[in-house]
Amino acid sequence: MNAIGDVERRTCSGQVEKPDTDGRVLPELIRDPQLSDRLRFGPKAVPTAVPLADFGYDSMRPGGKPALGNFQVLTVLVTYDGHPPLSRSASWYSTLVGRLGGTPPFTPDNPGSLLEYFAENSQHRFRPLRWKVVGPIRLAAPSAADLGDASGRGHRIVTEAVRQNALNLDELDLDADGDVGPDELLVITVENIPNFGPVNRAVNEITTATGRKVRLLCAFLGEGNSFTLFAHEVAHSLGALDLYGWPQGKSAQLTMMSTSVGGTQANQVACHLDPWHKLVLGWSEPRVFTDASRGHVVLPGVNKPDAPIIIHRPGRPLEFYLLEFRANRSDLQIGYESWVPGAGVAIWHVDTTAPGAARLQASSDPRYSEYAVMHVGAPNGQHGASTLWGAGAWHGLGWRDSFASCGVQVMEVSENRAVIKLGDPYPPMSGGGRAPEPR
């Protein structure tokens, strides 16, 4: 009550109507966002206590170790005889690999940083550090056999880089287990081969002078490759999978593990990894809901560790959905989302054979298989489409062998968040009817 005994009243719009001393009713906005959301969207959905390990949390481990802390990065610049030299300097590549404090938007003279990209994606849990940038080392032009044997070529490049620059690989045995593995050293090569197709391959085993075994994965890049390609190939060294499907291009611009040809060194666009990779790398802790959950859920931006949510059927954790809010941004808080197509809710369908092991399924091209981790795009739920779900959209979550059992309605999309409501598997105002067909 106020001083004259009048009771404050709440309007349906989330305001407080507060009488003043001469009887007028003055609206006052409610400033508690939780209260405001409850008034606008109804009760909150209640998360369930299901171990994230059931969904593969922290199961993708390079070299058998968590993708956490600092890994050292060796970058080798290679100039082959008979090809034009690299146009960028060693210092430019040093900035690209391991700079701190770069500010977007990124340009040729202000390149993005792999260190900051992975730090941003991992909530600063994983920060690859620039160990050495060497070269350009000069090598004889590769033969056709060399080009077809990346593992052997990588061995040749690393061995020559060690010899020409007196590198001591032994010092990288940080866990003192007698060898150097991909959990301690990441390798990037940049080769001056025209029209080079980037790949990630294991390097043939190297033995140091002291007998240590060096087992590495290498991101092979070419002159002029975009930042997206650098980040994509380095992510493979952590165990990340290609999610571009067949034909290529599925889930594009919503995960760095889709087709990553966006931009050039002159236009360095980027996007985050998908929430499944962040989950299995141990970089995020999604809130978990069942398909029977009802109520609204707030999805904050990707810079929050609990930003995504999981929706699953009780007792069946191998197939589930990951929902997240995504927005095209390139600022100091989120610098690596400039490639995202707009703003809205992303719905990822995940089908696994074991926790953290994505199922291989047939693709539309009978020659290839594809991983069953895909974005479900608006407006018709097409797997592999990149279109986000905007305010007012509704989608029923179907399962591989049964009808949909939960519906998701997007209630609000703003600059920094989205609000969804979990409900029955029928479109709003449909008056009942049949649930969506199983896929």
From TrEMBL:
It comes from the Bacteria. The lineage of its organism: Bacteria, Bacillati, Actinomycetota, Actinomycetes, Micrococcales. This is Uncharacterized protein. Residues 1-24 are annotated as: Disordered.
